[in-house]
User: Which sequence fits this backbone?
């Protein structure tokens, strides 16, 4: 995964809305293609509170997808994986991870990303950079320089193990020397041609990376990783609502489906929730002692910065475990690089408040069994 570019005549048109140029992202015509794998479904049993707050009665457990992203560089056809889902043999993680399965995390039987790639006819040795074991040692690993790389068994509590790194060429990104900053996030131009940027977004873990993939010269997919886990941590924000108004049927449904006992809005009346005047996202990042965010304060800062992309028409933000995307985001072999022309963003961003969507968590579930 190294990059190239060519120049393209830039036509400047007066625009009222923001564009990627306002984020400081340089113009380029070099692009990558983004394809999504749904590797597995998992459930965090009685652990919703470790991700998001508030947790309404009946929502103590939360199910979520594990997505992985295949990035292919347009010119060189070099490939990399961003996020890998979860390995099939969950007993082979480091003990600190295995001890959580299946008590805390239940992972449905599934195929490894390796098998999914092979089934899809993707040559594994063609993958230049990605993550962890199982890939041949021709695949390198790219991590933030502040990532905790201690491994089991040297460090008994480590979540990584020596076999994760063995034989792989490891590139540590040093953001202290990064010359680009987008929306306050330090960025590194991975292929050196403006097609794929890696961003420093600490919070979930130190060294946590996100990416901005340029899928057409003027549109981008933001790969948010674990910056947030539920769409309600990012939406709705006033700026977001201006550009992506809530569809009429969901606006109507949400009056009664979003509980005013738990969610406040200045325009709510007589128990009817008013999403239009909601001034902040519905959910907050868990800051409880057992939060899955190593540093919830830093995570919120990273989330706020990523949210500026969510509220911009040139960017489609996708996180790895967003259950509102299950069954709506096109999966491999389809590509999501055409998200703008297919209006994919408009079609999915409000799904999380639809009572029929698995992400819906805004009214209590009565346990009258
Ligand atoms: C995840 O769950 C959904 C809904 O039950 C199902 O359609 C899908 O096939 C599952 N995916 C995987 C990878 O298990
Ligand atoms: C989850 O919490 C419920 C209610 O407190 C309890 O009955 C159940 O055993 C818990 N499940 C697990 C796996 O801890
Ligand atoms: C897979 O890719 C590698 C490196 O690009 C190449 O050497 C090898 O011949 C490819 N194998 C197949 C089966 O296409
Ligand atoms: C490692 O685990 C031990 C025993 O559970 C615990 O006391 C210690 O605080 C842990 N250390 C770290 C760095 O998490
Ligand atoms: C990479 O893998 C090959 C084949 O498994 C092995 O022969 C070689 O020693 C490995 N190289 C490194 C640096 O681990
Ligand atoms: C490891 O990565 C560095 C930096 O990209 C590169 O210069 C070096 O050739 C790579 N080594 C191997 C064995 O792939």
Assistant:
């Amino acid at each position: 995964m190294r990059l190239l570019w060519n120049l393209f005549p830039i036509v400047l048109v007066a625009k009222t809305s923001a564009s990627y140029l306002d984020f400081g992202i340089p113009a380029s015509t070099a692009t990558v293609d983004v394809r999504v794998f749904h590797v597995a479904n998992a459930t965090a049993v009685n652990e919703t509170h470790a991700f998001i707050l508030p947790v309404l009665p009946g929502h103590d457990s939360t199910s979520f997808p594990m997505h992985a992203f295949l990035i292919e560089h347009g010119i060189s056809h070099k490939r990399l994986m961003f996020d890998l889902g979860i390995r099939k043999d969950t007993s082979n993680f480091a003990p600190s991870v295995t001890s959580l399965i299946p008590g805390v995390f239940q992972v449905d039987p599934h195929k490894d990303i390796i098998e999914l790639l092979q089934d899809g006819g993707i040559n594994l040795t063609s993958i230049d950079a990605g993550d962890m074991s199982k890939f041949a040692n021709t695949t390198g690993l790219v991590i933030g320089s502040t990532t905790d790389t201690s491994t089991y068994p040297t460090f008994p509590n480590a979540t990584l193990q020596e076999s994760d790194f063995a034989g792989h060429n490891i590139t540590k990104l040093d953001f202290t020397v990064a010359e680009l900053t987008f929306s306050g996030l330090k960025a590194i131009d991975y292929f050196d041609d403006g097609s794929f940027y890696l961003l420093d977004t600490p919070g979930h873990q130190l060294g946590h990376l996100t990416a901005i993939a340029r899928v057409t010269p003027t549109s981008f997919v933001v790969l948010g990783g674990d910056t947030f886990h539920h769409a309600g941590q990012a939406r709705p924000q006033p700026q977001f609502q201006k550009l992506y108004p809530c569809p009429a049927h969901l606006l109507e449904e949400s009056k009664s489906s979003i509980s005013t006992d738990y969610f406040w809005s200045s325009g709510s009346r007589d128990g009817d929730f008013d999403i239009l005047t909601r001034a902040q996202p519905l959910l907050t990042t868990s800051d409880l002692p057992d939060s899955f965010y190593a540093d919830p304060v830093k995570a919120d800062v990273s989330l706020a910065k990523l949210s500026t992309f969510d509220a911009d028409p040139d960017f489609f933000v996708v996180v790895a475990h967003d259950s509102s995307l299950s069954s709506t985001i096109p999966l491999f072999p389809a590509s999501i690089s055409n998200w703008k022309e297919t209006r994919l963003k408009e079609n999915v961003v409000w799904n999380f408040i639809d009572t029929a969507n698995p992400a819906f968590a805004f009214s209590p579930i009565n346990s009258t069994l």
